[in-house]
Amino acid sequence: MLVVAVPCAVLAACAYGAATAVEHRAACADPAGRGLRRVLRLARNRRWLAGLALDATAVALHVTALATGPVVLVQPCLVLALPVSLVVAWRLGGPRRPPRCARAP
After folding, report:
1. Most buried pick, 58, 68, 90, 95, via CB within 10 A?
2. What is the rounded (10 degree) CA torsion for 52, 58, 20, 44?
3. Cα gap 92→86, rounded to integer Å
4. What is the C-alpha separation between 42 and 87, in angstroms, rounded?
5. Quick check: 104 pLDDT over 50?
6. Are 60 and 6 spatial neighbours (Cβ–Cβ below 8 Å)?
7. Which domain holds residue 37?
8. Which of 15, 21, 16, 9 minimizes the C-alpha distance to 76?
9. Which of residues 40 and 4 earns the better pLDDT score?
10. Total domains present in the chain
11. Are the beta carbons of 54 and 22 closer than 8 angstroms?
């Protein structure tokens, strides 16, 4: 069943990477506050919720891949999440530097 396991593992990695970038962008867009209030505010953020949906999709794909293929094949595919997260973060506008970092000392 490697025909199912490999595509599911690669798609899971893509979903994990995209979710990481989307959730990071949502968390950085509203830096005010800390603790429970910030978490509750993020829970109402559509971008954050989209990231959670991508995470749930990734988990389902990952479980499917592990159910149909060996761990030795599936787990290394998940390393693709890193380059995917970098590309998605770049497409979302890249990292934002705070104004104080842009000034010379």
Report:
1. 58
2. -10
3. 10
4. 23
5. no
6. no
7. 2-102
8. 9
9. 4
10. 1
11. yes
Distance CA 90, CA 62 (A): 25
Residue type, 82: L
Average pLDDT of the segment spanning 1-16: 96
Q: Distance between CA 105 and CA 100 in Å, rounded? A: 9
Tens-place pLDDT, residues 23-64: 988 888 877 777 788 888 888 999 999 999 999 999 999 999
95: DSSP letter: P
Residues contacting 77, CB < 8 A, separation 6+: 6, 9, 10, 12, 13, 65
Cβ atoms of 20 and 85 closer than 8 Å: yes
- Residue identified by tokens 């973060």 is 89
